[in-house]
Amino acid sequence: MQERRGEGVTARALVTGAASGIGRATAALLAERGAAVACVDVNAAGLAEKAEAIAAGGGQAVALTADVTDLAAVDPAVAEAVARLGGLDGVANVAGTGDFAGDVTEIPPAEWARVLAINLTGAFHVSRATIPHLRAAGGGAIVNVGSQFGLVGCLASPAYCASKAGLVGLTRAMAIDHTSEGIRVNCVCPGPVDTPMLAWTAATPELTARERARTQGRNLIGRSGRPEEIAATISFMMSDEVGSMSGSVVAVDGGWTAG
After folding, report:
1. Scanning 67, 111, 195, 196, which has its CA 20 to 30 A from the CA of 18?
2. Among 160, 186, 195, 233, which one carries the catalytic annotation?
3. For residue 2, what are the contacts with CB-CB under 8 A and spacing of at least 6?
4. What share of the chain is helix, strand, coil (3-state, %, to 5)?
């Protein structure tokens, strides 16, 4: 669709988790800023609606249904994205899930495996499949979406905390391996963001009340973040304007981890 630009926003981007929340906002913002976007999600209906909305606004989007936990689905989805976009310059690993299932003695092993498969292994699968195409483009950027709970702990969420902390470590390891190839790898760690996943977490009232009491005052701005604010950070980290940024972990958490 587009040739790679020499500066500014990435021209050809792949965004996972694009059907809702931060991924949806990221796909929309990148398209608004002129990128052709491959939108990837397991939610086919939400994905198609998002791609149609981008096209209706004059943007360029491709909807690709794939489960990031399944490497056999990720590889062909990435190949199709590259074929239809004409290459790839940027990747946003946004797909994720929550976990409020109790401490390590309470969480079912299957739930532990599910959360790590989506939040951590999914980013590994997508990065593994896309890096050869970023190399072919002469470089690019990968942004992993972590969480403030990859930096500090959370009540009754061992799998979520472990997966997001693992994503921080994966980001740094990938930066060491690939920055010399012109592929910058960074991580944004949002705090509470007004998304469907946050609403789902609030559906466990007893644990939610305990965690709110434990963390009262941690969010210094006094409100949840907006998906568009995280999307703006991702777009910035993917752009050539921060060409010297790699291996960085940036908290956009309302001051949650400040003290």
Report:
1. 111
2. 160
3. 11, 12, 35, 36, 60, 85, 86
4. 50, 15, 35
Mark whether 160 is an active-site residue: yes
**pLDDT above 70 for 3:** no
Mark 74-96 as b/e (b = at least 16 C-beta within 10 Å).
beebbeebbeebebbbbbbbbbb
Which tokens sit at 130? 């896309």
Confidence class of residue 259 from pLDDT cuts 50, 70 and 90? confident
Do residues 174 and 130 touch, judged by C-beta distance below 8 A? no
Between helix 21-32 and helix 227-238 the angle, nearest 10°, is 50
Q: Quick one: which H or E segment has residue 193?
A: none
Give the tens place of pLDDT for each residue, 66-80. 999 999 999 999 999
Burial of 186 (0-12, 13-18, 19+ CB in 10 A): buried
